[in-house]
Amino acid sequence: MCKNGFIIPFKGKNPSGAYDLNLLFRKGNFFIMDNHLAAAWCWLQSIDLGKQYNYFHIDRHYDLLDSQLEKWLKYLDENKIKLAEIPIKDLLKLKCSIDSGVHDVFQIFRWDNYLPIFTKTFPSIIAKSFFATHKDGTVPEWFKMVELDVPSLMNNFLYDSGTGDVKKWILNIDIDYFFVKHDGKYLQIISDDFILEMCSEIKKRKDDIQVITLALSPEFCGGWNNSLRIAKIFSSYFNLGFSI
Asked: Which of 93, 70, 97 is nearest to 81 (CA)?
């Protein structure tokens, strides 16, 4: 397993879509990917399955698709798939039929369902979840969270008084949180200064963070150049050496 550098070498500025992973990079406990579908796999490379973690989700979307969750989980169980042990390339090959009207076979992990699969597979891992989103998507009734808006995001960043014992964090960031689409164009609505302040808060709490995942999501940022520019802010601040 690669501890530093590219786990999946950069394939080019191709569409990520729901299923394609064009890169996966790691530096210590910090992972960068273009497609968010790899996030849960990355967490499993860094967490202790015998411990609990608080979860912080900063993303335009909820990423809580569970429409075929029973089928996804059944496939994993029946085929004895151990998500904590499977190589990432094999994870991308997992497919099962779903109720799509034509009974097609689709890749199981996609950019909006990795969190429900993780949560149901490891139900005792996440103690409490905090979400800062654009409220894009739906939240299943069974999923519990604390929602934060932009003004309160930084004041509440990685602080929790509702779970008792101090727990480390899984920090999951999607760059598309910083953008919005208007009149066919993507505009950066969160400033670089705010992003740098976020980096500063992360650095202050680095000993409390077990793993960080950063998704580029170029299709929701107006293209690769926009998302890579923001990724370079994170890379430079944390000396990740991420460059493509």
From this structure: 93
